Amino acid sequence: MDTPAAVPRPLRRDAELNRLRIMAAAREVFAERGLEATLDDVARQAGLGVGTVYRRFPNKEALVDALFEEGFGRVVAAAERSLENPDAWAGMVNLVTELAEIQAADRGLRDIMLSEAYGRDRVAQLRDRIKPMLEQAVERAQRQGGLRADFRAADVPALLMMIAMTVEFGRDVRPEVWRRYLTMLLDGISARRDHPTRLPEPELDDDDMHEAMHAWPRLRWTTPTSTPEKRGPKVLSSEV
Amino acid sequence: MDTPAAVPRPLRRDAELNRLRIMAAAREVFAERGLEATLDDVARQAGLGVGTVYRRFPNKEALVDALFEEGFGRVVAAAERSLENPDAWAGMVNLVTELAEIQAADRGLRDIMLSEAYGRDRVAQLRDRIKPMLEQAVERAQRQGGLRADFRAADVPALLMMIAMTVEFGRDVRPEVWRRYLTMLLDGISARRDHPTRLPEPELDDDDMHEAMHAWPRLRWTTPTSTPEKRGPKVLSSEV
DNA sequence: ATAGAAGTGGAGGACTCTCCTCCACTTGCC
DNA sequence: GGCAAGTGGAGGAGAGTCCTCCACTTCTAT
Question: Alpha-carbon distance B96 to A165, whole Å?
Fold first, then answer.
């Protein structure tokens, strides 16, 4: 019972370097392609073999998990920042916009936040963490009369999902079109509005639309059949 | 060169019956589970063997194609109806709502309209068909002053994608929540609005949210690598 | 300098999942 | 009653994922 798991021995110098390489590669690959990227992809990006990656991280989930600690930090920071804005409505707009920007910039984070395929626990934790902040933001903005009274903190995730959709749609043609739709949405949740807010982006023209539709990733909503859960290594519990 | 492909000989009585059974089963299965359902599923639902299904339809795409002729009819009909409404804004609201309802009721149709995985040509055709109708609807609604002036017909698909997201999210917990978000969106595209429209549905409560997030299908945006295109049967065109 | 612990690469195993084929057998029709 | 047409469903082909395994290389402590 001495040093139960403490000081698990430092990695060899080269190994530590590689660990950092893996993290960096994973950040990049996941941000760019989302969690559908494989550890093989990460390894290639890092200039290492898959085996090395698996030696350091027992499985994909562990790597994702290690990585998104920092992503979550960004989300929380955005929420905190918005609460400091004396104009609560502006803060609200800012918050949603920043969250959308984070998603737009990092597909991996989007996958984590919107899909729960990985890091279920961690996401729950994040939600617990920002829920009160969202509630406060909403309450303030309503009290100041900027946000429609029937809006709820629980609506924010839905908003983000909607925006995620437009982000993805425009990605290859006009990476910023989503701001157009975010603006419409925000106009929709403002308390009163004599004139529509100026849309920051033009609509997709025929060519863009055509290309977007064509290059549009085939969206799959994999229905939860037969609890795929984790798939897990083939180690059966009966192996004992 | 006589009767080139005309009157391709009627099916045997039982075969014709089975063909209808297949169509009915496909309608049901695809509407319920989307295009990710396999022809095996369709066959099972029809109480037939897969072989039978493949004897009648050369591949999945052919079946999907045969089926969605009618789905497209519904879409066009909705568009026509909305154009008849003397109140152009009401017509617009109606149009978007009906399109959303169609998607909500038929996941297969949604997949076709939003993903182009199947029936690329047919979808293009549909788009050509409704595009002018949308343009007219938009133009009318703007002229009458109901719709914000910077809205474009090309924005409608984006709106529908956003709604599709919320439809899917609420599906198992509160199949109608999407109307809440559609209402916000519509408020966002109206020209002026002193008071927000009453939201037709309450937000998801904590339990709903938790369950929705948990049962939430793992959303996959399969990035178009290596042109999956069609995969197609292995019949090469060189077979001629 | 060197033993041997630690680390590495990447082919390939195990698994899953989908679309579709094949062919022995059954059924309807002239 | 004969035979073309139709049927069922096991299983082949192919794609793709996660991860293991182990011969080999590299570091580091003595």
Answer: 17
Closest CA to D5 C1' — which residue? B12
Tell me the C-alpha distance between B34 and B51, whole Å.
22
Residue A227 has pLDDT above 60, yes or no: no
| Residues 6 or more apart in contact with residue B8 via CB below 8 angstroms | none
Over 70: is that where the pLDDT of B197 sits? yes
DSSP A191-226: S-BSSPPPPSSPPP-HHHHHHHHHH--EEEEE---S
Q: Which nucleotides of C are covered by protein (CB under 7 A)?
A: 6-12, 14-23, 27-29
Residue of A nearest to B151 (CA): A203
Nearest to B107 by CA among B34, B39, B165, B41: B34
Rounded Cα distance between B133 and B125, Å, is 13
CA Rg value for chain B: 21
- Hey, CA dihedral for B116, B120, B124, B126, is it positive or negative? negative
What is the distance between the alpha carbons of residues B144 and B120, in angstroms, rounded to a whole number?
A: 35
Give the nucleotide at minimum CA-to-C1' distance from B47: D8
Contact B230, B184 (CB under 8 A): no
Per-residue pLDDT reduced to its tens digit, B1-24:
444 445 667 889 999 999 999 999
Tokens linked to B218: 């793992």
Contact A204, B152 (CB under 8 A): no
- Å from the B214 CA to the C28 C1': 52
The answer to whether B222 contacts A36, with C-beta atoms less than 8 Å apart, is yes
Burial class (CB in 10 A: 0-12, 13-18, 19+), B112: buried
B187 touches chain A (CB under 8 A): yes
From B228, which residue of chain A is nearest by alpha-carbon distance? A218
pLDDT above 70 coverage of chain A, percent: 87
CA distances (Å), origin B92, targets A197, B135, B175, B180: 20, 11, 23, 17
Instruction: Give the integer Cα–Cα distance in Å for B190 and B146.
Output: 6
